[in-house]
C-alpha cells in the first residue's frame, strides 16, 4: 500500500459552534501529529478565537493552516458578527444560522476550483450535509465527523428503524429501545428534537444528516472503544465504517505536553479559580457548568445558587454568557450571595477553563447538562457526574452515564424545559443539594462511582497513548483513506 501520510492533505469543515470547533481543532492537531497536512475552514471571528492553534502548530513544526471564508450573517438575516451558534440573540435564530452555514458551500467550491492540488480527504461535520455534493464534485474522499457517542448513534438508529416510539400514546410514556445490549428506556419527550417548534424542518434536517453519513467513506467518532465497545460494534453492524479516535481533549493534553506546555495558560479569572481549587481538599469541589448553548432562566439560576449553598461542598459555578441577566446579577447582589459564600464557592461568568478544572485534583464532581464533549472531558478526568440533560441527545447521554457506565447521579428531570416556560424553575434547590451531597458522598455508592470513574479514566488515557486503541485507529484511518485515494479516483486535478 502506498501509504505516505506526509503526502496527504486533509480538509476539515466544521460547523461553527464551540462544541464542534473545539474537537475539530483537537482533531487537526492529532492528524498533523501523524504527518498529515491539515487545512481547517473557519470564518473570521472563529479563526481569531482559535489563533493560538497556529502558534502551537508552528512551534511543533506541524502543518496546520486556516482557510477563512466570510460568514454570510447579514445575507441570512442574522445580526452582524453572529458567526458562532453561541452568539445567537435567541434560539429562534437557529434556523437562520443553519441557512447561513449552508451558504458556505459556494465560496468553498470556488476556493477548491482555484487550487492546483486538491485535498486528499475531506472531514466534514455531520451538521453540514451539503459537503457531500462538494466532495463528490471534486472527487475528494469524504468522511463524517460525529461529536456524539456510538451509544447515542445506535439508540437513535434503533428507535428510527423500529419506530417503537410511535406505539406510545403520550410524550411521557416510557418505551424500551429494541435490540440493544442493555435495557434502555426513553420517553418521546426525551428524544432529540422532541421540543422542536418546527418538527417538519427538524425531520428534514435529520434525513439530510443521515444521507450525508450514508454516502461518506466512514465516520470518525469522538469516543474510545473501551468506553462503549458493544455500542461501537452495534453501530458497525448497521453497516458503518467507524474509527473511534477520542477522547480528543486527551490527545490535545498530550499534544500540549509535547509542545512543552501544560495547557494551563490562564487569564486572571482562571488562575483565581485554579487557586480556589488548590485551597480545597482533594476531590471535594463540585463543578457546575451547562456547556456553551444552554439558556437557563433567572428563577432556575437562583435555585441552583441556593442548592449549592445548602450543600456541604465547595463549588465552582459557571453562569453562561447568555444567562448573565440583570435579574440574576441584581439578586446575587441583594442577597450578598458571593460575599456570603466567599470561602465556599466561586462564580465564573462567561467561559470557564473546563478541562483544567475537571483535571484538578480538588475537583470531585461535575453537575452537567450532559453535552458529549463535557461528558468525555469528565470521563477523561475520572470525575463522576450529576446529570441534568436539557436538550439534543443529552437525555441519551444521561442513560450512558448513569445506567451503563454507572458513574452518575440523576438530578431527576424527565423532559427538556418547555421553550414557552421561560420563567419557571424545573429543579428546586432541595434537589440540587440532595444530588450534590449524594454524588460527593464518602464511602458507599459514592466511593463505587468514583472508583469506576477512575478505572474509565485509566482506559481513556491508555486509548490515546502510542499503541492504544484510539491512537491506532487514527493511524489506520489515515492509511485507509490514503488507500481509497490511491486505489480510487485521483484527487489531483
Ligand atoms: N466549555 C468550556 N467552558 C465553558 C463552557 C463550555 O470550556 O465555560 C467547553 C467544554 O469544555 C466543552 C464544550 O465547551 O468542550 C461544550 O460542549 P458540550 O458538547 O459539552 O456542550 P454544548 O456546548 O454543545 O451544549
TrEMBL record:
<keyword id="KW-0328">Glycosyltransferase</keyword>
<comment type="similarity">
    <text>Belongs to the UDP-glycosyltransferase family.</text>
</comment>
<dbReference type="Pfam" id="PF00201">
    <property type="entry name" value="UDPGT"/>
</dbReference>
<protein>
    <recommendedName>
        <fullName>Glycosyltransferase</fullName>
        <ecNumber>2.4.1.-</ecNumber>
    </recommendedName>
</protein>
<dbReference type="Pfam" id="PF26168">
    <property type="entry name" value="Glyco_transf_N"/>
</dbReference>
<feature type="domain" description="Glycosyltransferase N-terminal">
    <location>
        <begin position="12"/>
        <end position="248"/>
    </location>
</feature>
<dbReference type="GO" id="GO:0035251">
    <property type="term" value="F:UDP-glucosyltransferase activity"/>
</dbReference>
<dbReference type="InterPro" id="IPR058980">
    <property type="entry name" value="Glyco_transf_N"/>
</dbReference>
<dbReference type="InterPro" id="IPR035595">
    <property type="entry name" value="UDP_glycos_trans_CS"/>
</dbReference>
<keyword id="KW-0808">Transferase</keyword>
<dbReference type="InterPro" id="IPR002213">
    <property type="entry name" value="UDP_glucos_trans"/>
</dbReference>
